[in-house]
Amino acid sequence: xxxxxxxxxxxxxxxxxxxxxxxxxxxxxxxxxxxxxxxxxxxxxxxxxxxxxxxxxxxxxxxxxxxxxxxxxxxxxxxxxxxxxxxxxxxxxxxxxxxxxxxxxxxxxxxxxxxxxxxxxxxxxxxxxxxxxxxxxxxxxxxxxxxx
Length: 148
Known about the structure:
By secondary structure, the chain is of the alpha+beta class. The protein has 2 domains: about 1-45; about 55-145, Jelly Rolls (Sandwich). It is built from 1 helix and 11 strands; from the N terminus they run αβββββββββββ.
């Protein structure tokens, strides 16, 4: 009789352990997502966004449009002008006029050639700062989607 019940008990125990394991994984995933969001919020709480960050007290970006779904900015950098340390929400960028920019972020310092008419998408930037090191004025659009 004991052997008749051994298999059902073992299978119920395995099922119970699988359910517990999946619940633990869900809790860990939720905690990790919460920590990631808190980290992102802490970053955005401590740093300026691209509209409020400027260069030596002067604005470099202007708001062209904002509604419940998106915000559109135009940023302009004459030679020697930069954008002080700031963060970005997820966005799409489009170069109205290109040039050479020095970019500093957590990966280091590098120079990039921004080509007129080029575009990119970003899931967000924890922080960076840029400086126009070329001899042309760089202008681009940033289209940010609003997060829920």
